Amino acid sequence: MPEQAAHTPRIGITTGDPAGVGPEVSLRAAAEAEFGKCRLVLFGGRDLLEARARELGLPFPYETVDPEALHGAHPLPERAVVDLPVSGIVAGTGSRASGAAAARNVMECAAACLRGHLDAMVTAPLNKRHFQEAGYDFPGHTEFLAHLSGAREIAMAFLTERLRVVLATIHSPLRTVVDTLSPDIVYGKLRILLTEFPRLGLPCRRVAVAGLNPHAGEGGIMGSEEESVILPAIERARAEFPAAAIEGPLPADTLFWRAYSGEFDVVLAMYHDQGLGPVKLIGFGETVNVTLGLPFVRTSVDHGTAYDIAGKGTARHDSMNSAIRWALRLAAARAGHSPRV
User: 299 with 122: CB under 8 angstroms?
Assistant: First the structure.
């Protein structure tokens, strides 16, 4: 990577489903003065982005660059756009075309990250139904990025300053979670957590593992998965990572408050809403989704496409700001130096 990248981080932002709020929150966040010491590259249709900026009363100081130019000898401008033209897009109305555009944004940005041309990737939301209608048979960004990067094991993490959560299962219907969980899966997520958090400069000395059932099974009265699935995984992780204090399985009804109060560095939740309900209640708007196990840093907003308010100029960009800040922080930690922002 050129020497400039070591001093001026380069962050790629996929502007998401162009019919949703992704373009708006991306443009608003990129206009923030606090990000002046990094280079932001938007991936999306230039004409659509310029039109949205005009509607929002925002300047549009973006130079169009070719993906290959990201690795050029000349420094990138502070604000650039990789033009991926779109047509037939109506704000607030998702479609197969908007799903295909969102997928292309992700593919081009991921390719640039894999080539080492960008330091991190920040993703605006896509709509899973329209994404799949466009021919991409993945539950969401996380699985799609694992496919694009060839990552063998990944985990979904959600970060705030005071509460950090990793999921054992991701986009699994609740009725399948029990059959999906196994000692190997729970252990695998613990291993990713305990390996990736230090690389990203995140503490993980005190790890809490949530139970699956009410009261963590109450000694088998309310379920046996704590004893048969979760505890063997914890014991295996304790043996492999003796420096970490791993507690569990613990009742989830009190666990997240204990973690928020500082008793634990991170919680491993068993299923999607078990982990996301508490973290979004405590940190909605500042919570950032991070994919662990990828060969590059990827952060994302904590909300969806919000078609109902797309194009109305009312979408808040707090979460995109947080996603950019965390991308800079995590990329700097991974590179072994402090961010200069």
Answer: yes
Structure tokens at 259: 């973690």
Q: Are 272 and 210 in contact (CB under 8 A)?
A: no
Provide the 8-state DSSP code for 336: T
315 contacts 25 by C-beta, under 8 angstroms: yes
Distance (Å, whole) CA 252 – CA 268: 10
Phi-psi region of 141 (alpha: psi -120 to 50; beta: other; left: phi over 0): alpha
Give the contacts of 248 (CB within 8 A, at least 6 positions apart).
208, 209, 210, 211, 216, 230, 231, 234, 268
Provide the terminal-to-terminal Cα distance of the chain, rounded to the nearest Å: 20
CA–CA gap between residue 259 and residue 262 (Å, rounded): 5
Closest CA to 45 of 117, 113, 98, 123: 98
Beta-carbon count within 10 A of 217 CB:
21
Q: Which residues on neighbouring strands pair with residue 246, listed in sequence order? A: 207
CA distances from 272 to 130, 145, 150, 284, 299 (A): 21, 18, 23, 16, 17
Torsional sign, CA 22, 273, 322, 81:
negative
Dump pLDDT digits (tens) for 84-98. Answer: 999 999 999 999 999
Look up residue 12 and give its two tokens.
């790629």
Q: Which helix (H) or strand (E) holds 266?
A: strand 266-269
pLDDT in tens, 201-246: 999 999 999 999 999 878 888 889 999 999 999 999 999 999 999 9
Amino acid identity at 296:
F
- The two beta strands, 155-159 and 164-167, are antiparallel
Q: Which domains does the chain have, with CATH numbers?
A: 1-150+294-341 (3.40.718.10), 152-293 (3.40.718.10)
Q: Is 294 helix (H, G, I), strand (E, B) or coil?
A: coil
Hunting for tokens 């021919």 — which residue is that? 135
State how far the Cα of 225 lies from the Cα of 218, in Å rounded to an integer.
11
Q: Find, among 258, 265, 274, the residue nearest to 244 by Cα.
A: 265
Q: What is the pTM of this model?
A: 0.90
